[in-house]
Design goal:
Number of strands of chain A: 0
Order of helices and strands of chain A: HHHHHHH
CATH topology of chain A: Methane Monooxygenase Hydroxylase, Chain G, domain 1
Largest sheet of chain A: none
Number of helices of chain A: 7
Helix content of chain A: over 70%
CATH class of chain A: Mainly Alpha
Structural class of chain A: mainly alpha
Oligomer: homodimer
CATH architecture of chain A: Up-down Bundle
Distance between the termini of chain A: 62 Å
Strand content of chain A: under 5%
């Protein structure tokens, strides 16, 4: 019985790691679909939703059963509770990647992103994918040093978002209202994706150290829009 | 011991109810601050952040201790796990209300919302406040019928958001890019606020019935932007 329990607990951790990889892939492909107006790739990302939803549902079910049947304590209890939070963050990251893919699908065959904005969206995509990958490593290796570094990388996303808003609100912006509205929402999706990756890392810190059970688990959100 | 435990469990429920009231007030005041360019009211909403954060932290701490020390089962276990989810949703609702207040502050003394858009924002505010109030009732009365009705009201928010995007993307829109970008993000905040209120109600359904432990707890998000 004990052994089966340890196996289920370990599975729960692996589950989170696999979901990190899936969300990373989803955001990478969604960004590619967006930048290349690639409808087939967008559809493929959108279809991945079901898998992340059912992975979250399974993980929650396992976590709940472990609580009910095994009454874990100390590190094991933190591992179960953390897993419940982490899969919620990861499902949300998947949903945000899918929002990006849906923007690509909605405007197809038109391009959503004007040429002058492409480099910033590309970088936002890269930062988001990197954060998801790093969150996966933090989770697998329980690496606290890496967890703390994620916070710094998240600042990059906020900087990119500010850059984007400065571009859109400048008098030289000649792409009109529609693309600006799309880009404002897209940048919000990337920003929130990054926030959730940082939240995953923070939950691992709690898992390992017991610090901040209900502490500051929601990363500060950037002040998205420059004064104007 | 048992008695103290029941008291703590009941406190956890009251905690959620109180947080519902706070987020409802926060969104009502934030919307008023936005529509009236009322800086003092906006600052007051922004200051309420700290209280919601610490209430969430306390509730998580209590929930974690109950799991560790009492190993609850059945309905009690569902109540503890639900409370952890519910306070997270409520903290997020508070954060979204604060985003609305920050938009008012950022543009002060200018008005963020052009005259033609005011009625829709007013209605989004009212729907959001109503959903938070209803979620509080669902929580206090464990009222499943009311919980199910919240889903329908959430559709209203999606309709309002679509109306808003239709206005902004019409050729007659003459308020420029800046207000459109602000409004796009604001409408997203209202929409997500409503989604989290529905999520609270769904967690109460789980608490009472045990259905959907890891099921469909994230409401479907509306297709925010019309085809154009």
């Amino acid at each position: 019985m004990r052994q089966a329990y340890q196996v289920r607990l370990a599975d729960l951790g692996d589950h989170g790691y696999l979901m990190c990889q899936l969300t990373s892939t989803a955001l990478r492909d969604a960004t590619k679909a967006l930048l290349n107006a690639d409808l087939a790739l967008a559809e493929q990302v959108i279809a991945s939703d079901v898998r992340l939803d059912s992975m979250r549902a399974n993980a929650e079910q396992v976590a709940f059963e472990l609580l009910a049947l095994e009454a874990p304590v100390a590190t094991d209890l933190r591992a179960v509770v953390s897993a419940m939070w982490i899969v919620a963050d990861l499902q949300r990251m998947g949903a945000l990647a899918i929002h990006v893919a849906k923007a690509a699908r909605r405007r197809h065959p038109a391009h959503v992103i004007p040429v002058g904005v492409r480099p910033i969206i590309e970088r936002m995509g890269r930062v988001g994918v990197h954060l998801a990958d790093q969150a996966g490593l933090v989770l697998r290796e329980r690496n606290l040093e890496l967890a703390r570094r994620l916070e710094v990388e998240d600042d990059l996303m906020d900087d990119l978002q500010r850059e984007l808003f400065t571009l859109m609100l400048a008098p030289e912006w000649d792409n009109g209202v529609g693309p600006a509205v799309d880009i404002a929402l897209l940048s919000r999706f990337y920003e929130r994706f990054a926030d959730h990756a940082v939240a995953v890392a923070r939950r691992v810190v709690f898992l390992v150290t017991g610090e901040n059970v209900g502490g500051d688990t929601t990363p500060a959100e950037g002040n998205y829009a420059p004064e104007s």
